[in-house]
């Protein structure tokens, strides 16, 4: 999120005038946002989302997008014998991972009554607030879908596609010998179960969890290590206050309390399709303005086998040495 005009965008978004000229027809027609403005909306999604800021966000130019990853699976270094050529078996070849992002459409709508618009203390700025905050609130719902989405869900929106936790079910570790309460063992077991090539760069790896799990782990550390609680709360970003084996324990607001996931942040790839719409319709008969935001998204692992999930945490159990 280091676009050179990002601060200017944030200031414009705060004023609520991000795309007023594109509403009700405008230059783009019927609220279809041109690419530059659509990209700004994606940035707003990321600005409001702790999840999108941490992961490998893909700006999709088409509803279907492929994640192509190339690498070497095993050792490539072998002893060099002068005058002796390497055999076919000794020659290294690339492994290719190709995972699809297939964007599904979402819609967020809000209605603003004429009387409310005329009589509220914010005045006409209330309409600007609705336009801006519709995107902000949508980013919260988008986070929940990307994390806990399930095509079998009974919740409208969560059933659009499978989120990262359901996708990672095949890589849930055997936790039968682990304590259900939050302590070092959970993070140790996750790390040990990850393939070696999946844990080469600790700086890019994350233990993903809920705020409650992160707080419980901080409490366990202070109770069992003789540390002071304050030492975990001195950073501005709560996700920077705890590490295990050099890997950040990062809480996300939409994350369920029952799971902890270990992943390289570059491997977890949320995607948002740039073809976005922001529309406002004035319904004279009903006496309301209708604000509608439409976008498309999906999420996938670039290398699905390089993720591990611990499932079955019990926050009600007191953990101690």
Q: Could you tell me how far the N terminus lies from the C terminus, measured between alpha carbons in angstroms? A: 41 Å
Structural class of the secondary elements?
A: alpha+beta
Query: Could you spell the SSE succession in H and E letters?
Result: HHHEEEEHHHHEHEEEEEE
Question: What order do the strands of the largest sheet run in, or round the barrel if closed?
Answer: 6-7-5-8-11
Strand content: 25-35%
At the first level of CATH, the class of the largest domain is Alpha Beta
Uncertain parts: 1-19, 25-29
Largest β sheet strand count, sense and barrel closure: 5 strands, mixed
- Counted up, domains total 2
What is the level-2 CATH architecture name of the largest domain?
2-Layer Sandwich
Please state the overall shape, judged from the principal axes of the Cα atoms: globular
Q: CATH superfamily of the largest domain, called what?
A: Major capsid protein gp5
Approximate helicity band: 25-40%
What are the key terms here?
single chain, 321 residues, alpha+beta, Major capsid protein gp5 fold, 2 domains, 5-stranded mixed sheet, 4-stranded mixed sheet, 8 helices, 11 strands, 27% helix, 26% strand, disordered N terminus
Give an overview in words:
The chain is of the alpha+beta class. The chain folds into two domains: 146 residues, 2-Layer Sandwich (Major capsid protein gp5 fold); 112 residues. It is 27% helix and 26% strand. The chain is built from eight helices and eleven strands. Strands 6-7-5-8-11 form a five-stranded mixed β-sheet. Strands 1-9-10-4 form a four-stranded mixed β-sheet. Strand 6 and strand 7 form a beta hairpin. The longest helix has 24 residues. The relative contact order is 0.20.
């Amino acid at each position: 999120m280091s676009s050179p005009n990002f601060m200017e965008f944030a200031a414009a978004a705060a004023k609520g005038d991000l795309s007023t000229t594109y509403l009700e027809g405008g230059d783009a027609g019927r609220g279809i946002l041109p690419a530059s403005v659509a990209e700004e909306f994606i940035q707003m999604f990321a600005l409001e989302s702790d999840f999108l800021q941490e992961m490998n966000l893909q700006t999709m130019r088409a509803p279907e997008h492929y994640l192509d990853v190339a690498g070497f699976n095993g050792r490539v270094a072998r002893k060099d014998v002068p005058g002796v050529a390497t055999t076919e078996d000794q020659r290294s070849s690339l492994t290719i991972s190709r995972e699809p992002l297939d964007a599904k459409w979402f819609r967020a709508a809000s209605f603003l009554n004429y009387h409310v618009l005329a009589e509220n203390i914010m005045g006409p700025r209330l309409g600007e607030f609705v336009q801006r905050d519709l995107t902000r609130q949508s980013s919260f719902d988008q986070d929940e879908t990307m994390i806990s989405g399930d095509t079998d869900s009974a919740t409208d929106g969560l059933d659009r596609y499978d989120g990262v936790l359901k996708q990672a079910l095949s890589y849930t570790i055997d936790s039968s010998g682990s304590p259900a309460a939050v302590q070092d063992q959970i993070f140790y077991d996750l790390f040990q179960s990850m393939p070696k090539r999946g844990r080469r760069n600790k700086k890019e790896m994350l233990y993903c969890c809920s705020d409650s799990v992160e707080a419980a782990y901080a409490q366990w550390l202070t109770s069992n290590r003789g540390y002071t609680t304050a030492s975990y709360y001195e950073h501005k970003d709560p996700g920077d206050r705890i590490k295990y084996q050099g890997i950040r324990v990062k809480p996300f607001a939409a994350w369920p309390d029952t799971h902890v996931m270990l992943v390289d942040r570059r491997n977890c790839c949320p995607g948002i399709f740039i073809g976005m719409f922001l529309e406002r319709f004035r319904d004279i008969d009903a006496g309301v303005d209708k604000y509608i935001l439409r976008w498309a998204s999906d999420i996938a692992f670039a290398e699905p086998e390089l993720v591990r999930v611990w499932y079955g945490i019990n926050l009600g159990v007191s953990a101690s040495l």
